[in-house]
């Protein structure tokens, strides 16, 4: 899942070498924390959050086979 997020986001940003994904796993959920270069933040979020929502949709669909809730947070 981590590789999927990195692949999607790296194609969108100007500084793909600065894309970082950290995962935190708890009992019933997995949280992926995405960080990118400050200049690329707008590209990842998109107008009215449309790009971020699309990334989340793909990640949630890919993780539906796991029996845990998956969250994607975008941090600076």
TrEMBL record:
Swiss-Prot/TrEMBL keywords: Cell shape, Cell wall biogenesis/degradation, Chaperone, Cytoplasm, RNA-binding
Major localization listed first in the record, in broad terms: cytoplasm
A Gene Ontology biological process term: cell wall organization
Subcellular localization, as worded in the UniProt entry: Cytoplasm
Pfam families named among the record's database cross-references: KH_KhpA-B
Keyword RNA-binding assigned: yes
Domain of life: Bacteria
A GO molecular-function descriptor: RNA binding
Coiled coil location: none
GO cellular component, one term: cytoplasm
Subunit composition and interactions: Forms a complex with KhpB.
Family according to the record: Belongs to the KhpA RNA-binding protein family.
Biological role stated in the UniProt entry: A probable RNA chaperone. Forms a complex with KhpB which binds to cellular RNA and controls its expression. Plays a role in peptidoglycan (PG) homeostasis and cell length regulation.
Name used for this protein in its record: RNA-binding protein KhpA
Lineage, highest ranks first: Bacteria, Bacillati, Bacillota, Bacilli, Bacillales
């Amino acid at each position: 899942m981590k590789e999927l997020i990195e692949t999607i986001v790296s194609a969108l940003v100007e500084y793909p070498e600065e894309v970082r994904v950290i995962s935190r796993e708890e009992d019933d959920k997995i949280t992926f924390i995405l960080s990118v270069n400050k200049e690329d933040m707008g590209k990842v979020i998109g107008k009215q959050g449309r790009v971020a929502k699309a990334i989340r949709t793909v990640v949630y669909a890919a993780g539906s086979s796991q029996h845990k809730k998956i969250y994607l947070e975008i941090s600076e």
